[in-house]
């Protein structure tokens, strides 16, 4: 708590001199209600969570901004999240409270008496932004806890290994903050050079990362090249975007060499690729549809090898979570009326036939007030307990089914 208070006070102190014109604040309140039905294992000899279970998550996010008017800015954001659920569900599914690529953090749990990550109720804190931006004419320099996101793919971003969101995450409005020093330089007419350093936990080089990106336009095609070192591994990637016949075409790929700077592990090298197209149809006031193919070289060719992937570099250090190799993803969003929108997407494992669908509906009920509802619907054969362990029969058969409703208020 002392570290949190010190960082917040520092940001407010920066803002105080400009309170008359350069200081602003805001935030949001989000409430999510879930009906969660975990996926059970067939023939499991011990009791399992037997849903559906009701889960409540309430998030308060406070933000402050300061602009000196002469090229220096500051931003801070702090979150409080309260979660409540039944004890047996909490025991089976502990809360994930850690964040990667941060030098240090205050204890995320403010309610240790309730059991922390396995408690039926928990109050968590997250200092998600605390950074300065200096923007003279020649460059932009960012220092502190900030958002970093790479890639243009809609389903999976192979070049994003720092703070990726898994498919099926509902609240993706704010990318998780990481501690970084970042420099952006304009290059030629529409290009940019971008470099960053992430010191990692406790300033340990083995837990840190660094990257260099170059973006340019060649024959009406946006091309971004990326080289990154993260936790002792090396990544080289590219992201290509082009408009053709009214459609946006995209291809994003990355090769990772495991343990290049520490303990070389060539057997764990992997390549990932996402390629597809997006098109806006003149239906219902505008319908946006997209389709992508994703190749996951870190995954397994068959279900029998799914369990062996968990300990490899891709899953422990690069944010990979899909277990198979070949996927097809697609989705569409439509504006049903000026205040109501609907969307749906699905990710299909082409190897085992399982899929994960996400329909949703949103109503802009009032200014800065949104009500939404949706579902996370996996389909596939459940895992089977045999001998001493459970064996996956399909990837998305391991996922739980959820229905949710949410309220979001911005101020």
Key terms:
single chain; about 400 residues; Porin; 18-stranded antiparallel beta barrel; two-stranded antiparallel ribbon
The gist of it:
The chain has 411 residues and is mostly beta strands. The protein is built from three helices and 20 strands.
Describe the protein.
- With 411 residues, the protein is mainly β.
- It has one domain (2-410): Beta Barrel (Porin).
- Helices cover 6% and strands 51% of the residues.
- The protein is built from three helices and 20 strands.
- The chain has helices at residues 2-15, 87-92, 313-317, and strands spanning 23-37, 53-67, 72-84, 121-134, 140-147, 177-187, 191-198, 209-218, 221-230, 233-244, 247-257, 270-281, 287-296, 326-337, 340-349, 355-366, 369-379, 384-386, 389-391, 401-410.
- The protein has an 18-stranded antiparallel barrel.
- A hairpin with a 5-residue loop joins strand 4 (121-134) and strand 5.
- The two termini are 25 Å apart.
- Residues 7-21 have low confidence and may be disordered.
What is the CATH homologous superfamily assignment?
Answer: Porin
**Number of DSSP-assigned strands:** 20
Structural class: mainly beta
| CATH class designation | Mainly Beta
User: How are helices and strands ordered from N to C?
Assistant: HEEEHEEEEEEEEEEHEEEEEEE
| Uncertain ranges | 7-21
Instruction: Give the overall form.
Output: globular
Instruction: Output the number of helix runs.
Output: 3
For the biggest sheet, the summary is: 18 strands, antiparallel, barrel
Using only C-alpha atoms, the radius of gyration works out to 22 Å
Query: Whole-Å distance between the termini?
Result: 25 Å
Q: Any idea what the CATH architecture is?
A: Beta Barrel
Which percent bin holds the helix content?
A: under 10%
Average the pLDDT over all residues and give the rounded result. Answer: 90
* Fraction of residues in β-strands: over 45%
Q: Can you tell me the CATH topology? A: Porin
**Count of structural domains:** 1
